[in-house]
Amino acid sequence: MRDYSIRAASPDDLDGARAVMLDTVYRDLGTGYVPHWHGDILDPAAAYLTPARHTLLVALAPQDGAVVATAALDSRGPAHPPNPRRVADRYPSGETAQLRRVYVRPEHRRRGLARRLVDELLAFAAADGGYRAVYLHTDPAVPGAEPFWRSLGKVVHDEREDPGGGNGVIHFEIPMGR
Questions:
Q1: Are 128 and 73 in contact (CB under 8 A)?
Q2: Strands 133-138 and 96-104, how do they pair?
Q3: Residue in 85, 103, 111, 100 with CA at minimum distance from that of residue 174
Q4: What's the rounded Cα separation, in Å, for the pair 37 and 41?
Q5: Which residues on neighbouring strands pair with residue 171, listed in sequence order?
Q6: Number of alpha helices (DSSP H) and beta strands (DSSP E) in the chain
Q7: Which of 69, 57, 73 is nearest to 19 (CA)?
């Protein structure tokens, strides 16, 4: 685990980060690329490198320096729709650090990378000083996603409990000072 290096992404890391993200939305999420949901994947520099309160982290494999994991944070709260109004109201843009794209290639999982990446994102959010909450949502159909996020935060809304099941998404808040 300690042999992996984690750092803020540079422009040289973006192709590798984009590949990890696209592979994940196709393979694990099963949605493929959906422009409305995944625009940040095609232009991660504009989404995460340019804005001062945003960041994209990458984990690099010890053997060849390839990007094997990503994690991002931005200051956009969850939008309504597609998210429930009460979730969007609770986590307004500008005050909310939203965790995004916490993805690890399958052959590099179970080595603590996601947890290390999240810890770095939480430190970034705390250092910013302007965030009052850390929010994320996840698809519980992705193997391991729900138990991982439950180990780090608290569920604030589970759409599976909504009449009709909503979108089946689970919304979490992660303590900043974890």
A1: no
A2: parallel
A3: 100
A4: 9
A5: 137, 157
A6: 6, 7
A7: 69
Nearest to 38 by CA among 21, 54, 52, 19: 21
Neighbours of 7 (CB within 10 A): 11
Encoded tokens for 16:
């590798």
The residue assigned the tokens 């493929």 is 32
What's the farthest any 2 CA atoms get from each other in the chain?
49
114 touches 143 (CB < 8 A): no
Query: Letter for the amino acid at 149?
Result: W
- Averages of pLDDT over runs of 10 residues in the chain (178 residues) are 88 98 92 89 96 97 96 96 94 98 95 97 97 96 92 97 86 89
Q: How many CB atoms lie within 10 A of CB 27?
A: 11
Rounded to whole angstroms, the Cα distance separating 75 from 98 reads 6
CA dihedral angle for residue 74, residue 18, residue 103, residue 94, rounded to 10 degrees: 0
